[in-house]
C-alpha cells in the first residue's frame, strides 16, 4: 500500500513541511540528566533522519513555578539557550524541523510551589496549588512569550503551546478549575483571555515566520469541561490570533476514560478533529492511538485531519516514515500502546524508553556494531527475549539458530494477544518474525535443543530464553481437572464454566478476568468502545461525556489474592486504573486477604479473617505467578560452552517483556 496523503508536503506559507507527520510531544527524562541534551539530540536526530515532517519536544516550562517536577526543564533565561542549540542543530543537520513545546503544569506540578487559576487541588498530585494573582497571570503570559523568543534564538522552528490535557491553560479555560471573579475568570470570554493573550504575546515576540502550534483540548472527558461551542469559539479566536497549526488534545490526565492505552481503538478520536474541520481553515492535527501508516493514511485521505500526530510510535521505530515511504510497513516496529517503558517511566521520574525498542532514548549507549569475532550461537526459545536477542545478535554478524519447542514463535505474547484490548501484541510478533528473516536467523520450530545438537553443530555459545511455566499450588483437590492454569485457558486447551475463581490478582489475574468477562473485544469495535466508556460523539454535554453503556455480565468471576493490600497494586502506573475499571464493568468480585483451603464438588473452600466459606465455582484458574522453565539448563552447562539466561528463565517474576527484550538486546551487544 502506498501512502500519498501521509507523504504529501504541507505548505504553511512561510515554510513547508515535507510530509503530514508530526512527532508528538514526549517527555523522555533526558532533559534533566547530566549530558542529557547530547543524548536528546541523538534521539531526535534519528527521528529526523527517519523522515518525520515536524518534531515537537517534551514540555519545557516557561518559568520556575510551571515546572512539572522540582528539577524539570525550563527555558526562561539566555544562558539556557546553548544546550537547546545542541538539539536544534542536530535535527537541522538531518534536514528536519523541530518545535519546542511550552508547558506550564499548573496544578499538575509535582512540587509545593505550583500555581493555578484557583486554589483547587488536583486528584492526581499531592500538592495544593496557590491561586495566581492578577499580576502573576500577566507575568506568566510574559514568561510564555520570553520562552518562545528564547526558543527561536536556540534555533527551534516554532513552539507548541500546551493548552490541553488539564495543564495550566486548560485549567483557565474550564469553569471546573477556574473559580476566579476577576478579568481572568467567570464568563467564558474571560476564561479564554489567558490562552489568547499568550498566543498574541508570543506572535508579537517571534514575528510572522515562526510556527506556533496550539494544542487545543477538543474533548476534555471530565465533568464540567468545555462545550463543543466553546471549543469552536476558541479555535476560531486562535486562528485570528495567528496560530499556524491546531493540534488535537484529548482528555485531562485526571479523566477516568482511557485515551492512549493499548485497549483504545486505533484512531478512536479522529472524529473530533474532523468535527472541527469545517469550522476553521488552519491545518488540524489528529492524534491518539495512530500507530500504523495505514490508519494515518485513512485519517488523512478521508479528510478527518490535515496532519497526524504520533508520539510513542517514534519511540518504537525511528524509521517509521521512511519505511512507509518505501512501502515496507511490514518492517515497522509498531507501538503497542503498553505505556510500560515510556509513560510509566516518565511518571516514576525515570528515563523513558520503549518495550519493543530498547534503543529508544539510549541511542548513544545501546548500539549494535559489527562483532569482531563472528560466532555461531544457539538460542533456546522464541519468545520476546529469544527473538530480540536473535535479531540484534544477527545484525552484528553472528550466525544465530533459534530452537522453539512449539509450532510458532511468540512465547507469552501468543497468550497476551488473546486478551481483549491486547491485540497489538500481534504486531510485535510480526515485526520480530520479519526481522529474523531479514537477518537470516535460522528458525527451527517444533524442535527442542539438547546438548548433542550443541556439540554436533559446533556452536560457540548458548542462550537460553525458554520462558516460564505457571506455578502450581499443592492443596487438597487441586489435582482435579477443573483446576487449570491460565495458559491452558488462553491456549484453548480447556474450556471453563460460568462460575470461576481466579487465584492470583497480579497482571495475569486481571488479564484472565478481562478475557473471561468480555466475549468480543470492544477495542476492535470503536463505536461500542466509545459507548462503554461514556464518550458522546454528539457532544451534547460538557466534556463530551454520557452514561456508559455496559453489557450485562455473562459469567460470575471471583478474583482472589492472599495479600491484604490494594488489588492490582503492582499494575502499570498509568494503566492500572483502567484494568480495575474494566473489571468493575464486568462486575468481577474481588477479594483480598484470602486463604485457600481446598477444592471439591462444592467449589473452592476459602477463609477470610478466620471465617470459612465456599465459592460455588465450576473452575479454579491458577494465575499465581510462574516459575522459570529451567529444563535442560544443567544439560546445556555440561557442554562446557558459555551459557546465558535471559527473560523469564532468568527471573520469573511478573511476566516482564520489557526486561526480557532489553536483556536480549544488551546481551547481543556483549557477545
Automatic annotation (TrEMBL):
Record-annotated NADH:flavin oxidoreductase/NADH oxidase N-terminal domain positions: 6-327
Entry cofactors: FMN; [4Fe-4S] cluster
Gene: fadH
InterPro entries: Aldolase_TIM, FAD/NAD-bd_sf, FAD/NAD-binding_dom, NADH:flavin_oxidoreductase, OxRdtase_FMN_N
Keywords carried by this UniProt record: Flavoprotein, FMN, Iron, Iron-sulfur, Metal-binding, Oxidoreductase
Ranges of residues in domain FAD/NAD(P)-binding: 376-653
Organism of origin: Shewanella colwelliana (Alteromonas colwelliana)
Similarity field: In the N-terminal section; belongs to the NADH:flavin oxidoreductase/NADH oxidase family.
UniProt xrefs under Pfam families: Oxidored_FMN (PF00724), Pyr_redox_2 (PF07992)
Name this protein carries in UniProt: NADPH-dependent 2,4-dienoyl-CoA reductase
The UniProt record lists the keyword Lipid biosynthesis: no
Gene3D superfamilies: Aldolase class I (3.20.20.70), FAD/NAD(P)-binding domain (3.50.50.60), NAD(P)-binding Rossmann-like Domain (3.40.50.720)
CDD domains attached to this UniProt entry: DCR_FMN
Amino acid at each position: 500500500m502506498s501512502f500519498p496523503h501521509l507523504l504529501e508536503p504541507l505548505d504553511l506559507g512561510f515554510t513547508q513541511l515535507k510530509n503530514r507527520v508530526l512527532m508528538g510531544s514526549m517527555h523522555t527524562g533526558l532533559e534533566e540528566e547530566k549530558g542529557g541534551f547530547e543524548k536528546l539530540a541523538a534521539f531526535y536526530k534519528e527521528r529526523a533522519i527517519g523522515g518525520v515532517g515536524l518534531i515537537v519536544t517534551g514540555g519545557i516550562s516557561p518559568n520556575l513555578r510551571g515546572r512539572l517536577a522540582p528539577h524539570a526543564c525550563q527555558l526562561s533565561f539566555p544562558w539556557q539557550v546553548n544546550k537547546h542549540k545542541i538539539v536544534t542543530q542536530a535535527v537541522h543537520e538531518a534536514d528536519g524541523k523541530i518545535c519546542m513545546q511550552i508547558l506550564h503544569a499548573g496544578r499538575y506540578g509535582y512540587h509545593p510551589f505550583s500555581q493555578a487559576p484557583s486554589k483547587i487541588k488536583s486528584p492526581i498530585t499531592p500538592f495544593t496549588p496557590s491561586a495566581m494573582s492578577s499580576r502573576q497571570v500577566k507575568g506568566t503570559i510574559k514568561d510564555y512569550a520570553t520562552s518562545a523568543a528564547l526558543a527561536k534564538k536556540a534555533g527551534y522552528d516554532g513552539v507548541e503551546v500546551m493548552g490541553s490535557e488539564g495543564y495550566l491553560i486548560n485549567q483557565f479555560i474550564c469553569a471546573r478549575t477556574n473559580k476566579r471573579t476577576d478579568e481572568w475568570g467567570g464568563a467564558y470570554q474571560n476564561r479564554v483571555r489567558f490562552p489568547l493573550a499568550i498566543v498574541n504575546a508570543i506572535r508579537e515576540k517571534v514575528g510572522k515566520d515562526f510556527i506556533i502550534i496550539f494544542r487545543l483540548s477538543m474533548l476534555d472527558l471530565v465533568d464540567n469541561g468545555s462545550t463543543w461551542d466553546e471549543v469552536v469559539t476558541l479555535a476560531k479566536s486562535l486562528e485570528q490570533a495567528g496560530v499556524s497549526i491546531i493540534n488535537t488534545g484529548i482528555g485531562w490526565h485526571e479523566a477516568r476514560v482511557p485515551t492512549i492505552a493499548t485497549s483504545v481503538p486505533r484512531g478512536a478520536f479522529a472524529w473530533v478533529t474532523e468535527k472541527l474541520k469545517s469550522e476553521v481553515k488552519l491545518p488540524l492535527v489528529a492524534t491518539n492511538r495512530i500507530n500504523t501508516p495505514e490508519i494515518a493514511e485513512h485519517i488523512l485521505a478521508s479528510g478527518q485531519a490535515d496532519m497526524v500526530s504520533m508520539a510513542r510510535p517514534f519511540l518504537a521505530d525511528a524509521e517509521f516514515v521512511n519505511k512507509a515511504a518505501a512501502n515496507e510497513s511490514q518492517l515497522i516496529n509498531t507501538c503497542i500502546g503498553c505505556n510500560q517503558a515510556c509513560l510509566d517511566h516518565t511518571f516514576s521520574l525515570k528515563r523513558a524508553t520503549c518495550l519493543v525498542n530498547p534503543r529508544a532514548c539510549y541511542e548513544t549507549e545501546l548500539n549494535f556494531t559489527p562483532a569482531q569475532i563472528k560466532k555461531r550461537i544457539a538460542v533456546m526459545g522464541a519468545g520476546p527475549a529469544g527473538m530480540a536477542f536473535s535479531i540484534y545478535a544477527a545484525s552484528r554478524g553472528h550466525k544465530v539458530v533459534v530452537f522453539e519447542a512449539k509450532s510458532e514463535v511468540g512465547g507469552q505474547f501468543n497468550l497476551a494477544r488473546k486478551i481483549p484490548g491486547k491485540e497489538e501484541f500481534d504486531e510485535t510478533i510480526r515485526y520480530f518474525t520479519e526481522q529474523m528473516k531479514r537477518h537470516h536467523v535460522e528458525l527451527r520450530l517444533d524442535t527442542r535443543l539438547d546438548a548433542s545438537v550443541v556439540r554436533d553443530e559446533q556452536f560457540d555459545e548458548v542462550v537460553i530464553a525458554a520462558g516460564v511455566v505457571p506455578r502450581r499450588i499443592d492443596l487438597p483437590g487441586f489435582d482435579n481437572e477443573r483446576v487449570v492454569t491460565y495458559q491452558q485457558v488462553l491456549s484453548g486447551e480447556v474450556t471453563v464454566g460460568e462460575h470461576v475463581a481466579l487465584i492470583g490478582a497480579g497482571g495475569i489475574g486481571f488479564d484472565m478476568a478481562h478475557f473471561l468477562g468480555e466475549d468480543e473485544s470492544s477495542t476492535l469495535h470503536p463505536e461500542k468502545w466509545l459507548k462503554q466508556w461514556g464518550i458522546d460523539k454528539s457532544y451534547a454535554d460538557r466534556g463530551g461525556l454520557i452514561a456508559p453503556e455496559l453489557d450485562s455480565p455473562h459469567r460470575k468471576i471471583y478474583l482472589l489474592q492472599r495479600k491484604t493490600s490494594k488489588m492490582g497494586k503492582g499494575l502499570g502506573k498509568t494503566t492500572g486504573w483502567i484494568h480495575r475499571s474494566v473489571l468493575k464493568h464486568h462486575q468481577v468480585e474481588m477479594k483480598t486477604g484470602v486463604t485457600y483451603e481446598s477444592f471439591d464438588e462444592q467449589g473452592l473452600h476459602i477463609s477470610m479473617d478466620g471465617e470459612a466459606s465456599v465459592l460455588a465455582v465450576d473452575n479454579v484458574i491458577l494465575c499465581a505467578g510462574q516459575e522459570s522453565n529451567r529444563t535442560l539448563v544443567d544439560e546445556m552447562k555440561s557442554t562446557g560452552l558459555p551459557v546465558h539466561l535471559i527473560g523469564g528463565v532468568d527471573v520469573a517474576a511478573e511476566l516482564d517483556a520489557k526486561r526480557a527484550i532489553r536483556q536480549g538486546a544488551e546481551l547481543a551487544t556483549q557477545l
